[in-house]
Design a protein that fits this description.
Number of helices: 18
Radius of gyration: 22 Å
Structural class: mainly alpha
Distance between the termini: 50 Å
Strand content: 5-15%
Number of strands: 8
Helix content: 40-55%
Shape: globular
Strand order of the largest sheet: 1-5
Length: about 500
């Protein structure tokens, strides 16, 4: 009953604070709203962004799925042929700024919000800006959300935004002064320790991107090592878990891509299916995908198959298992453990601790999906057992992170693939693999059969939102999606 009431509260608050707003207008309406009522609205809006808008396109880029041949909804995405005017993430951008960030400003500017309330709001704010930078590289920050006083905010560079929100986290956490969370909280149930653990995980994620970008790497390495040594992270998963199999209460991606479509569009991706089969990971394979009607086996789709292979039809391929009540994950325990494993291996030279965290990451992902038997993957003789050189062990961490983020957090899967270059690009296109599957290494990414960016080129960012460019003259000129964001230096 409590969860139903909270969901209703969030939906009501979202309606009051986020409807029909331009991202460059003042979103504070009504200006005197109690912050108790806007925090769940911000969390709900953010869940829609993370669990649908960003989730959907990123899943194509890391080849978790492809377009079913006899459908067309996402044909431009799988060919990388869309442009700024296709508005791929315009709605997500608006929900971030005129929805979630505007609502969080209500908490941050409230005279009744406690220091702990403001810290929780700042943590979500940092998360949103991290996501925004990882998509667009530049975003409105220093002049954003100021309403009529600055109707056309400038766009700040991504490195500056990353640095700034990390500073915000530090200063706001230092100002808590023993207060507790009073706002309604649909993510961490008012647990300050969970919010602090979430903030530390965000710090660790961002520190690794500074390190791999070669920006003050020594300092950020020391900070990452300190975070891991202190081990003050969240337990379980950070997730928005407030869905029910009822009208207007289902998981947003399920609603968009299954409930509200006349036809399904997603086919199992060739890369992820190949890797799960190669490693004997049948539990996660069958949790995620349906058997193909033609052969009764889980069968993956080569990228952009529908444009080159007329012999491949829907019945030849597996569709996804859709879950109407699946939570939206802001940060999984599995990803956290894999980040810890990376720090232990790369910077602490602690093989035993890295192994422990690596195996804990696999266990955590199995647990989140309600599965058992994860130890069979990494135990003696397991396909992904901890063995080999340091480089080979890092590859194990990165590959298992890619698997664990599938159907959980596609945006982070795309960001981490760009940072680590794992899964690696195979150097093959779909036609080559279709002609001779034996030349392909399971799990590697494949160039689409039709690739608007040119063979071997993949999306590295998103177009600046078209609506922002139309309304705000300070929006930067369009940058092609093959251009890396600031931290993607490899």
């Amino acid at each position: 009953m409590k969860k139903i009431l909270l969901y209703t509260l969030a939906a009501t608050a979202l309606t009051l604070s986020s409807c029909s707003l331009d991202v460059n207008d003042d979103p504070n309406n009504p200006t005197s709203m109690d912050p108790t009522y806007v925090m769940p609205a911000a969390e709900n809006a953010l869940a829609t962004v993370v669990g649908d808008g960003l989730y959907n396109s990123a899943g194509f880029f890391v080849q978790y799925y492809d377009q079913l041949p006899q459908s067309e909804q996402y044909g431009k995405i799988v060919r990388y042929q869309y442009t700024q005017s296709d508005n791929i993430l315009d709605r997500a951008y608006a929900q971030m700024f005129s929805g979630a960030l505007a609502d969080l400003n209500e908490v941050l500017n409230s005279s009744t919000a406690t220091g702990a309330d403001k810290f929780a709001a700042t943590t979500l704010r940092a998360f949103i800006y991290q996501l925004a930078v990882d998509n667009w590289d530049q975003v409105p920050y220093s002049e954003a959300l100021q309403g009529g006083s600055t109707p056309n905010p400038r766009w700040d560079d991504g490195q500056t935004v990353y640095t700034s929100v990390l500073n915000e986290l530090d200063s706001t956490e230092n100002a808590i002064d023993g207060s507790s969370i009073t706002v309604t909280d649909m993510v961490n149930s008012k647990s300050l320790s969970q919010w602090k653990g979430f903030a530390n995980a965000l710090r660790l994620r961002m520190y690794l991107r500074f390190i791999d970008a070669g920006v003050d790497a020594a300092s950020y390495t020391a900070k990452a090592r300190q975070l891991v040594a202190e081990n003050k992270f969240f337990t379980g998963d950070i997730k928005f878990d407030n869905y029910a199999d009822e009208n207007d209460r289902r998981n947003p991606w399920y609603s968009t891509n299954y409930q509200n479509q006349n036809t399904t569009n997603h086919a199992a991706g060739y890369a992820i299916v190949s890797y799960l089969k190669a490693t004997g990971d049948n539990a996660r394979l069958n949790w995620a995908f349906k058997p193909a009607a033609a052969n009764g086996q889980v069968t993956g789709c080569l990228p952009a198959s529908k444009y080159s292979f007329p012999d491949i039809v829907n019945n030849n391929l597996s569709e996804l298992n859709y879950y109407p009540t699946k939570p939206v994950y802001f940060f999984t325990q599995a990803e956290l453990q894999f980040l810890i494993a990376e720090v232990q291996l790369r910077f602490n030279d602690n093989d035993a601790a890295a192994k422990q965290a690596y195996e804990a990451g696999i266990d955590a992902d199995y647990s989140a999906r309600g599965l058992s038997g994860s130890s069979s993957l990494y135990g003696n003789g397991g396909a992904v057992a901890w063995t080999g050189t340091t480089a080979e062990k890092l590859n194990l961490i990165y590959m298992q992170k890619w698997v664990a983020l599938f159907y959980m957090d596609h945006m982070e899967a795309w960001s981490e693939q760009r940072r680590t270059d794992v899964p690696a690009y195979s150097g093959l296109n779909a036609q080559q693999v279709h002609a001779d599957p034996t030349i392909y290494t399971a799990g590697e990414l494949i160039s689409p059969s039709v690739d608007a960016l040119g063979v071997g080129n993949f999306p590295k960012r998103q177009w600046f939102p078209y609506d922002a460019a139309q309304y705000n003259p300070n929006t930067p000129a369009a940058v092609n999606i093959s251009t890396p964001v600031w931290w993607d230096k490899k």
